[in-house]
Amino acid sequence: MSTQTSPHPTSAAPARATRQWRGVIEEYGDRLDIPAGTPVISLGEGGTPLVESAWLSEVTGGSVWLKVEGNNPTGSFKDRGMTVALSVAVGEGAEAVVCASTGNTSAAMAAYAAKARVKPLVLVPQGKIAAGKLAQAILHGAQVIMVRGNFDDCLRLSRGLADDYPVALVNSVNPMRLQGQKTASFEIVDVLGDAPDVHVLPTGNAGNISAYWLGYRESLSSGESRKLPVMRGWQAAGSAPLVQGAPVTDPETVASAIRIGNPASWDLAVEAARASGGRFRAVSDEQILHAQRELASSDGVFVEPASAAGVAGLLLEAAEGVRYDGQRVVVTVTGHGLKDIDTALSTFTDLVDTVCDADVDAAAAAAGLA
Amino acid sequence: MSTQTSPHPTSAAPARATRQWRGVIEEYGDRLDIPAGTPVISLGEGGTPLVESAWLSEVTGGSVWLKVEGNNPTGSFKDRGMTVALSVAVGEGAEAVVCASTGNTSAAMAAYAAKARVKPLVLVPQGKIAAGKLAQAILHGAQVIMVRGNFDDCLRLSRGLADDYPVALVNSVNPMRLQGQKTASFEIVDVLGDAPDVHVLPTGNAGNISAYWLGYRESLSSGESRKLPVMRGWQAAGSAPLVQGAPVTDPETVASAIRIGNPASWDLAVEAARASGGRFRAVSDEQILHAQRELASSDGVFVEPASAAGVAGLLLEAAEGVRYDGQRVVVTVTGHGLKDIDTALSTFTDLVDTVCDADVDAAAAAAGLA
C-alpha cells in the first residue's frame, strides 16, 4: 500500500504497548507545569489530525498542513486546556468551576466538569445571550446564571467566587489552560519531526497563539525541534484589536469565536508575533466565509467560521503574491463546523441542485456523467 | 501523577517513531482486505477515545467503557468505512461516488470525496428531505439530485450509475465499508488488552454490529485477543425490525440515524448476535433521550440521539435487575451530539437557571454555594 500523503515513517518503528491516544495529560504529563499528584480528568482530547492540504499547498507553493482541532471531544481546541484546568482544580479540592463565557470555553468546561463530577457554573450578562450558544454547556449540566450587569461584571463575579468559595476559575486567566493548549505544538513537532517554518492561526482572545509559542519554545529547548516558526495571527476585520494596536469597544464579526475586543493574552500574543518575526493581520467576514466553504469542499475539512480566519489569511496573501515555496506551513483550524451549521449554510442560495426522473441515464445526465 | 482512570501501561513502553495517529488505513492496512496498491485517502479518522464511564459502571456493576465515535472527522463512525471505500474507489479509477442517504453516510462520503477530489453525488427522494439533514454533504460540495421516486428508486439508480459509469457506489452494500469499520474493534482490543465481555451498540442498518463482530473474530484469530464478546444491539422501539423479526414499513423514531425499517446487513447482524450469544432489543424514544441527557451530564459525552440507544439499553437492563459485575462492557456511541442540537435541547424546558445581581455573594447564593 502506498502512503503518498504521509511523512510518517511506516516501517521499523518499534511498537508502543498501545498505539491508542491517551489524552494530553497522560501523553505529555512530564512536560506540563502542573502540581505533582494531580489526578487525570480526560475525555481523550488531543491527538488531533494533522492533514496535508493539497489545495492550500498548490495555492501557496508551500507544504501546508491543517491541525484539525474540531476533532476534540467537545469540538474545539479548548478541550486541551480544560483537561488540565479541571484536573488541577479537582486536585486542589474545587467543588465547582466557573467561567464567564458563551461559547467554546463554557462547552468544554461543562463537559470536563461533568466528567470530574464537580459543578459547572456559567455566568453571562442577563438578556444578551442566545440559548443556542450555550447548548453544549446546558446539555453537559451547567448551571447558567444570568447576571444583572455586563460581561466585565460576570468576570469580576467569577473571580470573586474563586476567591471566597471552593470554586475554580477556568477562564483564560487560569494559567493551566496554556499548559494544556501548548501540547498542540508538541503533536505537530512529533509528526513533522521539527517545527514548521510558519504557523498560522485565528486570533481572538489570543490564548492559543501564546500557547503554541510556549510549546514551540519548549520543543526547541528540549531538542525535539531545531527551529521556531514564524507566528502569524489572523483576526476578523471587525474585531481586530491586535492589528489596530488598541482595544475594540464593539467588536463585530460572523466569526463569533474570535469576536473579542480586548484579548486576555494581549501581551503574550504580541510577544509571540514580535519574537518570531510574525505579525497580526485581518480578513473580512466575506473572506472568512469563502475560506470556510472552500476548505470544506476542497479538503473535506468543515470548520466553524472563526476557524477559517487563518485559511482566509493564506488566500489573501496568495492573492497579494506571497509565496511559501520550500516552506512548511501549519494552519490551526480551531473548531468543528457542526458548532454553527446555520452560518455555514447561509452562504448557499440553493441547497438542492437537480431534480430528475427515476431513470439511470437521467440521473447520469443530471450528474454531468452522460 | 496518578493515572487512576486508565488501564494503559504508562512506563517502559518503547516509543514509536511518532505517537500521533495516522488514520485507519495507515494504522491497520495490513489487516484490511483491500486491493494491493490502494492509495490512502484519509482525514485522520479512527483512534477515537475509549473512555471509562464511572456512572454506567456504578449503575451496572461492570466496568463500562464508551467508544466515542463522534470524535471522527465528520462526527460519526461512518468515516472509518468511508476512508476505505473512497481509497479503493480512487484506486479503481472512479471519477465520482454516489450514495442514497440523507444522514451521516452522505456527510462522510462528501468529505472524503472532497479530499480525494472526486465528485460526490447524493440521490434522495424528491421533496422528502429537510435541507438541514444534508448540510454537511452540501458544505463538502456534494451534488444533491432529487429523484422523482422513493428511496428504493434512489438506491436502484445508484447501483445503475455504478454499473454503467465511472462511479463507485459507497452505500453500505459496498463491502469496503465493513473493512474500515471493523478497525474500531482492533482499537478496543488494543486498549483493553483483550476483547470486552459484552459489546453494546445502537442498531439501525446493522452494518456496524456486523463490522465489530468481523473485527473481533479477526482479533481472536490473530491472537490479539483471547475471547469474543457477546454482541447486544439496541433498536428504537418504533424502528425495530431485528427485534420483531420482520421489516418495518414506516419506521418512526427521534433517533434518525437508526430509523431504518429493513436493515441492509440483516443476515450478518443476526448471525453476529446468534453466534455471540447476544440479541436485539428495543428502547423507547423517551428512554433514548433520557440516556442522551444523562450521558452528557454524568460523563461529559454528548452524542446524537441514535447514539444513546445502547446506553438506554444498559439503563433499561439495570432497572430490570441485570448486573454486569466482574465484566467489561464496551458501549459504542456512534455520532456527535452537535449533529442534532435541536432534538437534544427539546428535552429542556428552561435553558437559564437563575438571574442574580452583580454581587459575589448573590452569585454564590444562586449557585447554591453560600
Automatic annotation (TrEMBL), chains A, B:
<keyword id="KW-0028">Amino-acid biosynthesis</keyword>
<dbReference type="InterPro" id="IPR001926">
    <property type="entry name" value="TrpB-like_PALP"/>
</dbReference>
<dbReference type="GO" id="GO:0030170">
    <property type="term" value="F:pyridoxal phosphate binding"/>
</dbReference>
<dbReference type="GO" id="GO:0004795">
    <property type="term" value="F:threonine synthase activity"/>
</dbReference>
<dbReference type="InterPro" id="IPR050147">
    <property type="entry name" value="Ser/Thr_Dehydratase"/>
</dbReference>
<dbReference type="GO" id="GO:0009088">
    <property type="term" value="P:threonine biosynthetic process"/>
</dbReference>
<dbReference type="InterPro" id="IPR036052">
    <property type="entry name" value="TrpB-like_PALP_sf"/>
</dbReference>
<keyword id="KW-0663">Pyridoxal phosphate</keyword>
<dbReference type="InterPro" id="IPR026260">
    <property type="entry name" value="Thr_Synthase_bac/arc"/>
</dbReference>
<dbReference type="GO" id="GO:0009097">
    <property type="term" value="P:isoleucine biosynthetic process"/>
</dbReference>
<dbReference type="Pfam" id="PF00291">
    <property type="entry name" value="PALP"/>
</dbReference>
<keyword id="KW-0456">Lyase</keyword>
<protein>
    <recommendedName>
        <fullName>Threonine synthase</fullName>
        <ecNumber>4.2.3.1</ecNumber>
    </recommendedName>
</protein>
<feature type="binding site">
    <location>
        <position position="104"/>
    </location>
    <ligand>
        <name>pyridoxal 5'-phosphate</name>
    </ligand>
</feature>
<comment type="pathway">
    <text>Amino-acid biosynthesis; L-threonine biosynthesis; L-threonine from L-aspartate: step 5/5.</text>
</comment>
<dbReference type="InterPro" id="IPR004450">
    <property type="entry name" value="Thr_synthase-like"/>
</dbReference>
<dbReference type="GO" id="GO:0003941">
    <property type="term" value="F:L-serine ammonia-lyase activity"/>
</dbReference>
<comment type="similarity">
    <text>Belongs to the threonine synthase family.</text>
</comment>
<dbReference type="GO" id="GO:0006565">
    <property type="term" value="P:L-serine catabolic process"/>
</dbReference>
<dbReference type="InterPro" id="IPR000634">
    <property type="entry name" value="Ser/Thr_deHydtase_PyrdxlP-BS"/>
</dbReference>
<keyword id="KW-0791">Threonine biosynthesis</keyword>
<feature type="binding site">
    <location>
        <position position="334"/>
    </location>
    <ligand>
        <name>pyridoxal 5'-phosphate</name>
    </ligand>
</feature>
<feature type="domain" description="Tryptophan synthase beta chain-like PALP">
    <location>
        <begin position="41"/>
        <end position="335"/>
    </location>
</feature>
<dbReference type="GO" id="GO:0006567">
    <property type="term" value="P:L-threonine catabolic process"/>
</dbReference>
<comment type="function">
    <text>Catalyzes the gamma-elimination of phosphate from L-phosphohomoserine and the beta-addition of water to produce L-threonine.</text>
</comment>
<feature type="modified residue" description="N6-(pyridoxal phosphate)lysine">
    <location>
        <position position="78"/>
    </location>
</feature>
<feature type="binding site">
    <location>
        <begin position="204"/>
        <end position="208"/>
    </location>
    <ligand>
        <name>pyridoxal 5'-phosphate</name>
    </ligand>
</feature>
<dbReference type="GO" id="GO:0004794">
    <property type="term" value="F:threonine deaminase activity"/>
</dbReference>
